[in-house]
Design brief:
The protein is α+β, with helices and mostly antiparallel strands. It contains nine helices and seven strands, in the order H-H-H-H-H-H-E-E-H-H-E-E-H-E-E-E. A hairpin with a 2-residue loop joins strand 1 and strand 2. The radius of gyration is 27 Å and the shape is elongated. The model has no long low-confidence stretch (mean pLDDT 80).
Length: 227
């Protein structure tokens, strides 16, 4: 459009654009066709597309939406090119999915590895830094699973697709509290060990606090919480 054609009070252009009214009937047809095409493509790509997406599935669905969404609002774009693009995306996704089921190395390289965030009641600070996740997010995930302290946790995994998997400690030990520091009243009524201290950063349990934590080097300790 030319500059002289743009006016701030041209509400018909702002709301309806420069298309003739009859194009809105065509838009309805295009939307229905595109909707059915997306449903068909997702069906072909498998049940995983209806659950949480992996990396390659997210790329596939994003490419699908970006490529076939253009014909909905552009009258000079046909629908058949969108079908061709959709079939290419679906074909590539099915090839990748087949390769993932046969090649473990390819799966690790494309989908990522599992990360251990909590190891035997202690936070793995180095691994948390590597995957860029903070203590408070880990604590929030644990609280969502009714965990009050790290002594109740055997393992906490960050799965390759972003989910958290908790393995509880068969025999809970005293551990670092994961309760919010802002909730002082609730923290105050919890039971704490009188002879067991834990690192306030990673939860490493120490009986003597005269030296830095052997796992993370932190010098601050606090009483361990017990069930």
């Amino acid at each position: 459009m030319e500059k002289w054609q743009i006016r701030w009070n041209d509400w018909m252009r702002i709301l309806l654009g420069n298309m003739p009214p009859v194009f809105f009937i065509e838009v309805i047809i295009r939307v229905i066709f595109t909707y059915l095409l997306v449903i068909f493509c997702i069906r072909l790509m498998g049940k995983r597309m209806a659950a949480q997406l992996s990396r390659n599935e997210l790329v596939a669905i994003s490419s699908l939406a970006a490529s076939i969404g253009i014909p909905i609002q552009t009258p000079d774009r046909g629908l058949l090119p969108a079908v061709l693009v959709a079939m290419i995306v679906v074909g590539a996704q099915r090839i990748v999915a087949a390769r993932l089921s046969k090649n473990e190395r390819f799966e690790r390289n494309t989908q990522g590895n599992i990360s251990v965030l909590v190891d035997d009641c202690c936070l793995r600070i180095d691994e948390m830094k590597r995957v860029r996740i903070g203590r408070q997010e880990v604590f929030a995930r644990l609280r969502a699973n009714r965990i009050k302290h790290l002594g109740q946790v055997k393992r906490l995994y960050l799965e390759a697709k972003g989910d958290f998997t908790l393995v509880r400690q068969p025999e809970p030990q005293p551990g670092l509290s994961v309760l919010p520091v802002e909730d002082k009243e609730f923290r105050a009524v919890q039971r704490y060990s009188e002879d067991s201290m834990v690192c306030s950063r990673c939860g490493n349990r120490e009986n003597q606090v005269t030296k830095p934590c052997g796992r993370c080097g932190n010098e601050k300790f606090e009483p361990a919480m017990v069930d």
